[in-house]
Amino acid sequence: MKHGFVKVAAVTPDVKVADCAYNAEQICACAREAAELGAKIIVFPELCITGYTCQDLFWQEQLLASAKNELYRILEESRGLDALLFVGLPWEMNNKLYNVAAAVSRGHLLGLVPKHFLPNYAEFYEQRHFTPGQSPVQWTEFAGRPVPFGMNLLFCCWEMEGLTVAAEICEDLWAPDPPGTWHALAGANVIINLSASDETTGKSVYREELVKGQSARLVCGYIYASAGPGESTTDLVFGGHSIIAENGSVLAATPRFENGAAISELDIHRLRSERRRMTTFHTIENRAYEKIVFHLQIENTVLTRRFAPQPFVPEKQEERAKRCEEILTIQALGLKKRMEHTGCTTPVIGISGGLDSTLALIVAAKAMDMLQLDRRNILSVTMPCFGTTDRTYANACALTEKLGATLREINIRPAVTQHFQDIGQDMDRRDVTYENSQARERTQILMDLANQANGMVIGTGDLSELALGWATYNGDHMSMYAVNASIPKTLVRHLVRYYADTCRDEQLSGVLHDILDTPVSPELLPPKDGVISQRTEDLVGPYELHDFFLYHMMRLQEEPQKVYRLALEAFAGQYDAAVVLRWLKTFYRRFFSQQFKRSCLPDGPKVGSVAVSPRGDLRMPSDAVARIWLEQLEEL
């Protein structure tokens, strides 16, 4: 449960219709097995103690008494389990019968939550047997002790701040106004559902989308346990389709038509962070709810869910292709609108033969097509200097030609050499002045060319560079419109590859693939034997690590130790702990110290869930201190 993770299970046990003793035995065995795997919240299907398909047997006194007797048995079993269990059974109260979820923990019946929406259409006839549950909490009795009874019950973990669980039952989720909505607004961030959803053609897809969508809308974890093939097949078949979802993502699901368990970990800290961030999600103190405390031992949850090493990049090829096309369109439309508004007709781009300027040139070409302007109006400027290699120079020229832009070459060696003489900079002193003078000279040239040509300078820097401050202030840091400003480096690479694979030009594709194979470098230091000598990732760290850190720190607001833990999970076998820790410290130091560069960024389109624009996602003081973040990493 450290770092906000709690392991949960949605279990479909084998059942025999109306055989409560057998069913309780299976429930207890499954509960033990799930608890041994570390599950702290274990959910079973609707009416699982009796079986959902008992029909008129629900009126039988013998069945109701047997269900209560077996609930005793489950309570006794729970004494030895460090878990909160939810099991389903029929419950009589005030001469009415209710379909309830019983919350059980450490030998205690904590509460009974009745089903509100009773389907009475098509194959369902629940109103024949049951009474709709109501929100107000009443009290019933079990084993001589009072037990809260009602829909408005919140089960709150004493040891884990913020872990709040509420229950609904099957059709409650399918209704237009599910009880889970009100539970979430009252503070529940885990909604459990005891279900008995029969299988018909196509229903499983809708069911999963429903669970996934509800978890997204309520910003919650959703645990859905459904009845399985042990139910009566007189008229229906139940598939045991159990699902665990979190904020719009399915974490685990069982195969249909068999008994089994879906097990995964919910990230409670992430859910709380998302709700804090969303000003439209109003959790309110609702005094109509009864809060019931349950206890769990705090321990380090073993993680089984997968964490994508490249969270900005879809892993499935088809989805990635759609995302790339969408992003390129957003970038191009942003530039198109800016050119229309300003009356500029000439995008001016400093082309280096690297990934970022390549992407910017592709975007400019798409924008010109949208504007129905000749691509030859794009001024692609190569400015070789001390670190330029033949490979990148040749690629810059070939790329410009194949995309139909106009190439202009301005060798800046003489200008930078003169500048060094003016300021007294030793040519052999390869320091930050040596490097940054070249970047600023290039920016000055681009700005002046834009003035000459009724144009605008298109920024090439990406999100990863902005996060790390890996840009020369008032050099490549500055432009008139920054089309790549919200594109992380890992995604830049995929956008260029996508264009290479879909451009239908074999020669252009070849140039783009060679650019993809070129080491990332600012090329500000002289090459060695004609080969790039300055590799960015050797100096600042692997971009795939920094993009991972950025996503989890900015998008999910996670603490440094948790980011470190998840990075070890995501990059297991690729980077060892010492390497991850080294670059994570670098990330925090640079992120905080370089905010002054982000505070004056040029305009640029936001394309994803993370951006650092001072007018949008990141309102951060330029002199904020990283001490408490780095101190937590020192504890590792």
List the helices and strands and how they pair.
Blueprint: E1 5-12, H1 20-36, E2 41-43, H2 61-78, E3 84-93, E4 96-105, E5 108-114, E6 138-142, E7 145-149, E8 153-157, E9 164-169, H3 171-174, H4 179-185, E10 190-195, H5 203-217, E11 221-226, E12 243-246, E13 249-253, E14 260-267, H6 268-277, E15 290-294, H7 317-342, E16 346-350, H8 355-371, E17 379-382, H9 390-403, E18 406-409, H10 413-423, H11 432-452, E19 455-459, H12 463-468, E20 481-482, H13 489-502, H14 506-517, H15 536-540, H16 543-555, H17 560-570, H18 577-593, H19 595-598, H20 627-634
Parallel strand pairs: 1-2, 2-3, 8-15, 9-10, 10-11, 16-17, 16-19, 17-18, 19-20
Antiparallel strand pairs: 1-14, 3-4, 4-5, 6-7, 8-9, 11-12, 12-13
Helix pairs in contact: 1-2, 7-8, 7-13, 8-9, 8-13, 9-14, 10-11, 13-14, 16-17, 16-18, 17-18
Q: What descriptive keywords fit this protein?
A:
single chain, 39% helix, alpha/beta, Nitrilase/N-carbamoyl-D-aminoacid amidohydrolase, elongated, 20 helices, seven-stranded mixed beta sheet, six-stranded mixed beta sheet, Rossmann fold, 636 residues
